[in-house]
Amino acid sequence: MTRSDPPLLRRWIAARVRLTLRTPRATFFTFVFPLMFLLIFSALNGNTRVPAMGGAGGHVRFAQFYAPSIGIFGLTLACYTSLILGITTARDSGLLKRVRGTPLPMSIYLGSWLTGAVLTGLASVVLMFAVAVPLFGVDIYPRTLPAAFVTLVLGAVTLAAVAIAVASLVRTADQAGPVAQLTLLPLSFISGIWYPLDGAPDWLTTIAHVFPLYHLVNAFDGCFVPQTTGGGWSGGDLLVIAAWAVGGAFVAVRRFRAEPASGEPGGLRARLAS
Amino acid sequence: MTRARQEAILDGMITNSLEVAATATVADAGEAAVAVRGVRKSYGSVRALDGVDLTVRRGEVLALLGPNGAGKTTLTEILEGHRAADAGELDVLGHDPSLRERAFRQRIGIVLQETGLETTITVREAIELYGAAYPSPRPWDEVADLVGLREQADKRADALSGGQRRRLDLALGICGDPELVFLDEPTTGFDPAARRQSWELIEGLRSLGKTILLTTHYMDEAQHVADRVVVIARGRIIAEGAPEALGRGEASLVSFRLPAGLAAEDMPLPAEADVELRGAAVQFRTSAPTRDLAPLLSWAAVRGAELEALTVSRPSLEDVYLQLTRESA
């Protein structure tokens, strides 16, 4: 770390965000996709009441449950799926190798990916609420906003750290898409993103409890349940999420440090070809 | 190849390396940008580098020639710090490249073939962004001018033509004002005009005092831009010297067309030379063309015959290269 590193990191983050917004695929996934779900599901379910999340009891209107859940889904697309695809594509195209040949520290490069994903993810959630509040009458509560914000930021960082770890374990960008979908989709179903988990069998919720997504949904949705008292903090959930952030970061740092040669087209033949 | 010819080639190389040594002392007190000894690298049972010694002087443009799989890429990647050698002493700008220290990476520029880049980044953004990591980057407009991309400054990387993209890669390799530049086949796939431009650019970098190590498949490129050529094959350096000095001891090729009505048997062709006859075309190799041509010319003059298409040609760098790499195979 030198004195010029913080401005260098800021510069790369700004560039990363700018470049992401210029990519139609990424923008669509991050901003339009979740909104689309919100509109379709709200249109389908109207004002149905569903059991509230977080064991707070009572029922809430569908949109009140659904908006925060879909917000987390958008966050996951930006911080998990897009990040895995982005980093593996960068590696396959030789971009990581280019970076390794420059004085730019890999930590700053990957840090810019992580922060850029977190920022766009947060923006997509904000956009989501900007639509959901006036359009579907979703209520937000000032007293739980700090908890909601902290949960969201911690969740975004965790998803991004795990994504970098997954990207370091996946061999090619071709594998990255299926791997991202296969890890995200089943988890999203058992983590209560699409509908409340109250009727789910114990073994399924036990599995869900291992992963950060369930805790993220639980902690965030809890902030939007009218019956929630106090600040809406879910300490236990945040602890599990933070543990995953540390685990993801550990794997990511190890993998990107231990493999100075990763990022070049692999295989003996490729290495021997002059 | 005869033993005598082998010795002649060696002779040429030795004379040349003495010359090089002499000029080096005068030019920069023999300071080396790259000095490596006994570099070895194996991939499993395959020996990619088998004891390579290489010195590149500061300010020198060195071309690394060799067939595919010869070890060029492995060697340059070891020098760049992309790869670790199994054995050998390595000194690149006073650093051990395998440590990949930031201070080392600040002083080198690497231009690889087909390296990825953010697709939506513009030329100007890329030069500024990648330059920002260096302690004293060149201004973006200066770099854009150097590679001839000033007019494309606001174009996105994915909208550039193939040649422009390569020039952007080059720009990113020099945007940090490095002392040592690695160029991996800088003009592969270029049209002749673009190649000339790139050569001028390399010439420009040389005049800025940069040390350049380039790999290439093109002999004319090596001949044009390089101060010195190193031929690598099967993981070993098999020849090195100034482009024009390589093959100095090689035989010249004499060729002409038989005058009408005359037979080759009647002519005073050199006795030891291997004379080839293809229709009316005659050719032979000799290390003493003056001696061998004199009787032939007076013979023709006496008969008033013209030896059409008479040429005496020195072996090109390409001939020498092919000869050398064939021998090592």
Neighbour order of strands in the largest sheet of chain B: 5-6-7-3-8-9
Instruction: List the total number of helices of chain A.
Output: 11
Shape of chain B: elongated
Order of helices and strands of chain B: HEEEHEHEHHHEHEHEEEEEHEH
- Tally of helical runs of chain B: 10
| Domain count of chain B | 2
Assign a percent range to the helix content of chain B: 25-40%
Sheet with the most strands: spatial strand order of chain A? 1-2
Largest interface, with counts of residues having CB < 8 Å to the other chain, equals: A-B, 29 and 43 residues
Instruction: Pick out the low-confidence regions of chain B.
Output: 10-29
In oligomeric terms, what are we looking at?
A: heterodimer
In whole angstroms, how far apart are the ends of chain A?
35 Å
Topology:
The complex is a heterodimer of chains A (274) and B (329).
Chain A: H1 5-22, H2 24-45, E1 49-51, E2 59-61, H3 62-92, H4 95-100, H5 106-136, H6 145-169, H7 173-190, H8 202-210, H9 212-222, H10 235-258, H11 268-272
Antiparallel strand pairs in A: 1-2
Helix pairs in contact in A: 1-5, 2-3, 2-5, 3-5, 3-6, 3-7, 3-9, 5-6, 6-9, 6-10, 9-10
Chain B: H1 3-28, E1 32-43, E2 46-57, E3 61-65, H2 72-80, E4 87-92, H3 102-105, E5 108-111, H4 123-131, H5 140-147, H6 162-174, E6 180-184, H7 192-207, E7 211-216, H8 219-225, E8 228-233, E9 236-241, E10 252-257, E11 276-278, E12 281-286, H9 289-302, E13 308-313, H10 317-328
Helix pairs in contact in B: 4-5, 5-6
Q: What do you see in this structure?
A:
The complex is a heterodimer of chains A (274) and B (329). Chain A has one domain (5-264). Chain A has eleven helices and two strands, in the order H-H-E-E-H-H-H-H-H-H-H-H-H. Chain A has helices at 5-22, 24-45, 62-92, 95-100, 106-136, 145-169, 173-190, 202-210, 212-222, 235-258, 268-272; strands spanning 49-51, 59-61. Chain A starts with a helix and ends with a helix. With 329 residues, chain B is of the alpha/beta class. Chain B has two domains: 3-241, P-loop containing nucleotide triphosphate hydrolases (Rossmann fold); 252-313, Alpha-Beta Plaits. Chain B has helices at 3-28, 72-80, 102-105, 123-131, 140-147, 162-174, 192-207, 219-225, 289-302, 317-328, and strands spanning 32-43, 46-57, 61-65, 87-92, 108-111, 180-184, 211-216, 228-233, 236-241, 252-257, 276-278, 281-286, 308-313. In chain B, a hairpin with a 2-residue loop joins strand 11 and strand 12 (281-286). The longest helix of chain B is centred in the first third of the chain and has 26 residues, at 3-28. Chain B starts with a helix and ends with a helix. Classes of the chains: A mainly alpha (274), B alpha/beta (329).
